[in-house]
User: What shape does this take?
Amino acid sequence: MRFSLWLYPYGRWGSLEAMGKAAVRAEELGFSSISISDHIICPTGPERDGVTPVWHDFFVLSTYIAGRTTRIRLVGCLVLPYRRLLPMAKQIASVDVASGGRFTLVACVGWLKQEFEMLGVPYDERGDITDEYLQAMKVLWTSPNPEFSGRYCRFHDIVFEPKCMQEPHVPIWIGGAGPRALRRVVEIGNGWMPMGDDPAPVLAATIGEIRVRAEAQGRDPGALDFRYTLGIGEAESALRTISHSIGVDEPARAQIKNSRSAEEVAETIDQFKEAGFTELCLSFAWTTPQEYMERIEWFASGVMPSFA
Assistant: This one.
């Protein structure tokens, strides 16, 4: 079992320097990755529920964290339809190079309709855009003479460099649930990151289904990663912390466990390990950088040794 950390909510850190120090300490403590999430703007009014105002540019923040660390991976939960394909594919490859091959892409479709409207992207077409972008990016990252013609992007007679440092390209995990997301995992994904509050037995059944379908397509099911976001701490605060990545109603979020001891947290982690998850992204309840650092120190000393 591997453990990743959200740095969200970004507005609580006060500076990039504070976030960088947290990433360096997480690397020293043995966490597997730093998770970086994605919004470009935050609407006002009721639509902003679960979306805090401060969102650093995804690629600037990723590059900054990469430059502050040497071993820990960067897991980027990127909403693909928000951006134009060619600049985005270039930025992903460049972050992978800048990090020395430590970047993992979580391909997300997005859920905040008002944000799509402000960006001029058709909300109802976001799934189609995501599918096409994934196909096109793989061509850009692997072909010496990339060509592609689709509804949302097309290119030919171009040189695309740099390629990703990892071969054949950065790992692609698929974010979200539902039939379409599962199809992406089975067909092209290196992993799955569901967004929601399904209990471990339900998730275990879905993981089993993914593995069976992947094997039927000639893929190695044992090579797939499975990742989940786990709230740890006082329930109300933890819910607010992870709500940006879940996008579900408050009653559904209320089932997150209010864990009070390392033993209880370890028991919860065991449930997800038994379900087939290989990595958990931890969302602690915290209000200040000092409190955040205390949480990760506590987890590293009290919980991680049980899963070494």
